[in-house]
Amino acid sequence: MKVTYKGSIFLIAAILCFSLVRCENLSVSENQQRDIENVMDTENIIEKDDESEPRIGEFPLSESTKKFLFGKWKVKRLFGFYESWNDESEYPKGQDIIGDELIIQPETFSSMGLRKYKAYQKRLSDPYYYVCESFNDIDSLYRVEKLLIPGLKDGDEIEVINVARNTNEIPEPFGFICIDNKRLLLSMEATLFELDKILE
Question: How far apart are CA 24 and CA 148, in angstroms?
Answer without folding.
Answer: 57
